Amino acid sequence: MPAYPSGHMYNGAVLCAKHGNGGCDHLDCGHGGSFVVVYVDVDTDHVVRASAYSSETRAWGATTSVHVDNFFEDRVSLLAGGALHFALEGGRSILKYDLSRHRLSVIGTPGDFAGMVMMEAEDGGLGFVAVLNGCIYIWTQQQQEVGTTIRWAQHRTIELETVLPRRYRSQSGEVIGFAEATNAVFINRHEGVFVLDLNSRKVRKVGERGDYRNILPYMSFYTPSDMANNGRLSPP
């Protein structure tokens, strides 16, 4: 892959080339399939540049840019609504890269939600979850009518004191991950790492406290049949 110049800070993602047309089940697309690499960086003047590399053309596409107020937050990107999203420091804005138009834009959030974790909403759009003043806030973007401005709506609020055991109510904590398949939030607190099931509101401790910024939960492990059949991997 041709080199791409690096800025002051950078982020990116690797996507299946068929992510937008429903032509792939994403179970084995990493084994020889076409892919797209999206690379974004920001310089010291807070100008973000972005470009996409295609394995089919073996070249980087045109570069697009936009000015931002803050650098990238130490979070993974989120694919939702046909765009990649990158959280910016301070929690007041999110960088959006439109995958079809190859354009950058900045989305304002409804407040100061530093340390938020982005999530895909039930309708496939953008959302985020954050802990603030002892409460878990879940916000999603909603569009009332076709052609109208998309606005943020507070989807849900949960007071941590109502779901945590009494001995774990001393610290507010920070959201460090979200598992979309199980609708669960990972929270790092003084007492350890906890996972909250948003459906049942049950909480359980899953690890000791550490300097964690991100958790990347995976739901399953897939062994391609052709790799198992030729002896490179043993089937389960």
UniProtKB/TrEMBL annotation:
InterPro entries registered for this protein in UniProt: AT5G49610-like_b-prop
Highest taxon of source: Eukaryota
Short name of any one Pfam family annotated for the protein: Beta-prop_AT5G49610-like
Domain F-box protein AT5G49610-like beta-propeller stretches: 28-224
Cited PANTHER family: OS06G0249850 PROTEIN, OS10G0136150 PROTEIN-RELATED
Name this polypeptide is given: F-box protein AT5G49610-like beta-propeller domain-containing protein
Organism from which the protein derives: Panicum virgatum
